[in-house]
Automatic annotation (TrEMBL):
This is 6-hydroxyaminopurine reductase. It comes from the Bacteria. Gene3D superfamilies: PK beta-barrel domain-like. InterPro entries: Benzoxazolinone_Detox_Enz (IPR052353), MoCF_Sase_C (IPR005302), Pyrv_Knase-like_insert_dom_sf (IPR011037), Tri_helical_YiiM-like (IPR005163). Residues 26-163 form the MOSC domain. NCBIfam families: PRK11536.1. The lineage of its organism: Bacteria, Pseudomonadati, Pseudomonadota, Gammaproteobacteria, Enterobacterales.
Amino acid sequence: MHYPVNVFTGKVRDYDGSRPSAIAKVQIDGELTLTELGLAGDEQAEKKIHGGPERALCHYPREHYLHWAREFPEQADLFVAPAFGENLSTDGMTEKDVFIGDIYRWGDALIQVTQPRSPCFKLNFHFGISDMSSLMQSAGKTGWLYRVVLAGQVFADAPLELASRLSDVSVYDACAIAWHLPFDDEQYHRLLSAAGLSTSWTRTMQKRRIARKIEDNSRRLWGK
């Protein structure tokens, strides 16, 4: 399958009442350089939780915007790509049919799905919706992140093409295991077995198995 893609990059800017962010991105056309840290010209404000080799690109399904516009009709005009700060936007790829470890060919590059995006409190400020990050997580409409397996030149008019599927854990399954289910060691083992899972998610799931409990996510979701 081939999936036409729109491409976006952004610069860090300040936001009243919140911390700096590069969530506001603009569409890019033509040829781009993709390195192991992402697209040339794209920035991340807090590199401890955004960006890096295993979170080099963020992908959000364009079809989800209709869902959010229906949920929040008064803010419907906000819900157009790339409102969630994504680098890649497509129709036809969702969390239910994209799998952890999937490798996609894009131009001269290869990119691999590493984890769902973990929604954070900055989305609440960005949309002016106090619980946006929590709703996004609960719905499993999070999008996902990639590592760059092979850097190279990419093109805004080049589609994504699935090259390899390495696990049976969809991005939606990963969301459900991490956030929707009570403590379940067997499911954490299943997720840990998914080839390509990011180091940060591997660490989190293994910590749960050791501690026999789920960590507190309130600071990520609410900034508290």
